[in-house]
């Protein structure tokens, strides 16, 4: 019983639970026209259904209450999955939002992610060029959002490089890598699907990790010792680390360090 208690009160899980009830985020940069934050996981970007826990949008609205009372119109420019941490750009007015959105549509923005994955890629640099399609369009899938590599899918390209290889003693593997991933397209779950397809699934990924069943089990039971042993982290280890975008005559660029849960996983032995 003691082992179960320790698992259910692990530092990563305690941090995960605290964010659910307290939407803290770090301000990376702010101007009169925009705000950039480092979003933790599992913080939602914005409310999706009534009764959601606090979201990033809630926290930003509280932070910018004075600006909003004086006509600010917030617009979140880039969205991250609930379990993905990292950089989020928010425009404070409609002209700035339009300019940022146009740059995104023209693919003038550049994004880089850090991912902790299972395994050691042989090559220091590699590119994954594999079209993606929602699995439910071609076969039955118990997970509606599940994406798969398919020849009739949308063109998808991710450039990857190995930042660091390291080892941990676990019951289901010991070799891990920190990967820098640069998506050249913006498909749903692209980096996670591509890395899994290449044989290096993201640690903690309930959908594209060891088994889709982990996602279904989590919906049914919540986080359990069995899921902890299989996935190691209560969220997938993907972080939006760098973002650049044109703004007037210049190009803005921001970087966000890994958050504590991923930094701890990188640097703490796991028995």
Q: Give start-end ranges of low-pLDDT stretches.
A: 1-9, 15-21
What's the architecture, going by CATH? 2-Layer Sandwich
- How many helices? The count is 9
Structural domain tally: 1
What's the total count of β strands?
12
Task: Determine the mean pLDDT.
Answer: 89
Measured between the Cα atoms of the first and last residue, the distance is 18 Å
Instruction: Determine and state the CATH class.
Output: Alpha Beta
Overall geometric form: globular
Determine the CATH superfamily.
Pseudouridine synthase
Helix and strand composition category? alpha+beta
Spatial extent as radius of gyration: 19 Å
Give the SSE order as H and E letters: HHEEHHEEHEEEEEEHHHEEH
Question: How is this structure best described in words?
Answer:
The protein has nine helices and twelve strands. It is globular and about 55 Å long. The protein is of the alpha+beta class and 271 residues long. It has a single domain, classed as Pseudouridine synthase, CATH 3.30.2350.10. Helix content is 28%, strand content 30%.
Helices and strands in order, then pairings?
Blueprint: H1 2-8, H2 11-21, E1 26-30, E2 34-39, H3 56-63, H4 65-69, E3 75-76, E4 85-91, H5 94-105, E5 110-118, E6 125-129, E7 132-134, E8 147-149, E9 157-170, E10 173-183, H6 190-197, H7 213-221, H8 225-231, E11 238-247, E12 250-255, H9 260-267
Parallel strand pairs: 4-11
Antiparallel strand pairs: 1-2, 2-4, 3-4, 5-10, 5-11, 6-9, 7-8, 9-10, 11-12
